[in-house]
Every structure is written in structure tokens, then in C-alpha cells.
Write a structure and sequence with these properties.
single chain, mainly alpha
Amino acid sequence: MNTKPSLDGSSDFVKNEEARETPPMRSYLWLTMFTCFCPAWPINIVALVFSVLAQKSYTHEDYDGSRRLGRKALHLGIASFVIGAVIITAMGCDLLRGKKRWKRRKGGTVTAR
């Protein structure tokens, strides 16, 4: 079998090497570590685990697995941040509403026992 060289003079080996460039690592570790301070703990811990697994897959040159795990870490990190913001907002509103009720019951002043 006789193969013809390409018209532009480049070889297939060079094209294959250019196609195998390493993609950038996207484990979103910074996001998952930040979301660990949000009050949605089971979700942030799972996001942190996925982020670490994405880094580990990247070091083992499993770029497809790293990209997939990094995307899962990103989605769980965003979900954790949103759930944490909702919980903090709900607790803040409940706390403010409770202080207003406490002031009305005690005649306008808050006293500590």
C-alpha cells in the first residue's frame, strides 16, 4: 500500500501531536473549598471530593475523566453555594422576625435574662 504525502508538506505525525495537547486542568478546587463555608455540608463535601478526584485523574493523564469530574464539582459547588445562600437568608429573616415579635411582647425593649 503506497500512501501519498500531503500537499502542504506536513506529516500526519505532527498533526497527531498537535491534537494531543494537554487541556488545561479545571478541577474548581477554589470554588469547592469556598463552598465548604456554606451551610449545605453534605453537598459541599461531595463537590470537594469530585474536585480532588478531577485533579487526580488529570495527574494520571485521564483528561476526559478529569473534565467530567471537574464539571460535576462545578455543578455541585454552584448548587451548594445557592442552597447555602438560601439557608442563610431564611435564617436571617427568621431571626429579624423573631426580634420584632420579642420587642412587641416585652413592651418595645429587649432584655436579657
